[in-house]
TrEMBL record:
Top-level taxonomic group: Bacteria
Organism: Gracilibacillus halotolerans
Keywords: Membrane, Transmembrane, Transmembrane helix
Membrane spanning residue stretches: 37-60
Protein name: Sigma factor regulator N-terminal
Length: 327
């Protein structure tokens, strides 16, 4: 075989060899690209996710958003949930990607003691409330979807669905060794001071304030509104916005103005979905503070005596506990 033929044979062998190795080279290149893409993706994720968490913490912590949202939630309950108080140490915050979970417990005064009434679990994405879960610990539960006529506190012109005489009979049948919470609707509008003077030896814990809409409990758009009011008794709880308050009325009005900027969040937190704060603030500023109903607590016999009061129209019985008074 001459040199030319040897060269031809070698070329044919090289061509066959490259033909067999071609798919292997391509497959190797594809696998290499996949691994490079995977490592690149992981690298990006390892950079982005911690950065997002850091931004979340900065948004809520350094931007004081967490404090603001907690403030709005707590103040909303003070003014929309009768006879409710909160404890600062009960607030539990948990942060996740672009969101904050806020959990806390509310209390009710019955007699001289405060009892857990409801737990709240709220989830915010940035500053928007996206989820609310509640767990009531009460025996008596306020209507989940109040209408114009099933409110527990009624304006003098308004009718109610419950039968007040039956409520008085149930109260009279309780043992004398009990303390109770009662929702008292009045026959007219009064100052809170007038009501306190009328109800001697009974703790008036919360007063519903008339804002021009409670005659029908409907807004101008026809939406059912919530009663709003404020705690009457001095409150030494560190977290309470009424702690060391010189005028609970003025503190209440200032709270309404603060919450107005976050009314959508407040309506999500509250059991009632329409607050109509702008209109109600304007009414209070022009007409002052009058109450059409209060929440009271005290010995069963003292509360029962209110049936003969000249200013009491309706009574709705709330929580009942064994005697816990020191007097």
């Amino acid at each position: 075989m001459d040199s030319y033929e040897k060269l031809i044979q070698k070329a044919k062998k090289d061509k066959l060899k490259h033909a067999n190795e071609g798919p292997k080279v391509i497959k190797k290149a594809i696998n290499s690209s996949k691994w490079k893409l995977l490592f690149s993706t992981l690298t990006v994720l390892l950079i982005i996710v911690p950065t997002c968490y850091m931004l979340t913490y900065m948004y809520y912590a350094f931007g004081t958003k967490s404090t603001t949202l907690m403030d709005v939630a707590s103040k909303t309950l003070y003014i929309t949930e009768p006879n409710t108080t909160l404890e600062e140490m009960e607030f539990d915050m948990d942060f996740s990607l672009f969101s904050m979970n806020l959990s806390f417990e509310a209390y009710k005064q019955i007699g001289e003691e405060f009892y857990p009434s409801k737990t709240y679990d709220l989830q915010f994405i940035l500053n928007k409330l996206v989820k609310k879960e509640t767990n009531s610990k009460l025996e008596k539960i306020y209507p989940k979807y109040p209408t114009e006529t099933n409110q527990w506190l009624a304006h003098p012109k308004q009718q109610v669905e419950f039968y007040s005489k039956k409520e008085w009979r149930v109260l009279s049948g309780l043992p004398d060794e009990t303390v109770v919470e009662a929702y008292i609707s009045l026959i007219d509008l009064y100052s809170v001071e007038e009501v306190i003077n009328e109800m001697e030896n009974i703790d008036v814990s919360w007063a519903a304030i008339y804002t021009g809409l409670e005659d029908t409990m409907l807004s101008k758009e026809g939406n059912v509104i919530s009663p709003i009011g404020y705690p009457v008794q001095p409150d030494s709880t560190l977290w309470s916005p009424f702690r060391d308050s010189i005028s609970h009325e003025e503190t209440f009005l200032n709270m309404l103005k603060e919450i107005e900027r976050y009314e959508e969040i407040a309506e999500g937190v509250s059991s009632h979905k329409n607050l109509e704060l702008e209109e109600r603030i304007r009414y209070i500023e022009q007409n002052g503070f009058k109450t059409y109903g209060v929440v009271v607590t005290g010995p069963k016999t003292k509360i029962a005596s209110l049936e003969d009061s000249n200013i009491v129209r309706y009574m709705k019985l709330g929580e009942v506990k064994l005697w816990n008074l020191g007097r």
